[in-house]
């Protein structure tokens, strides 16, 4: 069997578009795609708050590169944020349906929270989502992690170094059997914090992502570097498992 040709790929696996009310209106599909090319990304995941509705537009805007990963940033009923990633748009949108069935009926007030827009690749507005997306769904962290896995997805505990909306802020130190596929640190986290986490839980892969809500927040030094054959979902899954020679090179080598 021919050995795979592996090389480094820089991926940002957590960023937001205009579907997220807290994102700037400049975060349209074409603008995100242009910024990703400008900073040299090989792939990026669109992970709006409790939603994936703008993933198809970003994928069309990124024809020719970079690669697009379909996802959402889930807010659990405990107010823990989890990045979910899926093999394709259909799986991500089906999971969005599961989330929206569990969203409280609180309506969004654009004057307070911002607009929640579904757009096309050219920036045209297709829809405006009425329920407020930045609230916890009626499902706890364990149920959310199980649901993501049952749908063939990957789960990453988001920004565990932050004092709010993180696993550590709500439930304390991440346990060895947490059930997530990886752990994300924000770009603000010092290297020593990542190294200390790695020493305590060496079996969990660590990532760094931009969590960009503005174009200027998308930066190459706020991303992760992977050794893959290509920037696609199955290669990412192998890297998070440390299988087939695939691995994470930055921010913390794994395995």
UniProtKB/TrEMBL annotation:
<dbReference type="GO" id="GO:0004534">
    <property type="term" value="F:5'-3' RNA exonuclease activity"/>
</dbReference>
<dbReference type="InterPro" id="IPR052018">
    <property type="entry name" value="PHP_domain"/>
</dbReference>
<dbReference type="InterPro" id="IPR003141">
    <property type="entry name" value="Pol/His_phosphatase_N"/>
</dbReference>
<protein>
    <submittedName>
        <fullName>PHP domain protein</fullName>
    </submittedName>
</protein>
<feature type="domain" description="Polymerase/histidinol phosphatase N-terminal">
    <location>
        <begin position="11"/>
        <end position="78"/>
    </location>
</feature>
<dbReference type="InterPro" id="IPR016195">
    <property type="entry name" value="Pol/histidinol_Pase-like"/>
</dbReference>
<dbReference type="GO" id="GO:0035312">
    <property type="term" value="F:5'-3' DNA exonuclease activity"/>
</dbReference>
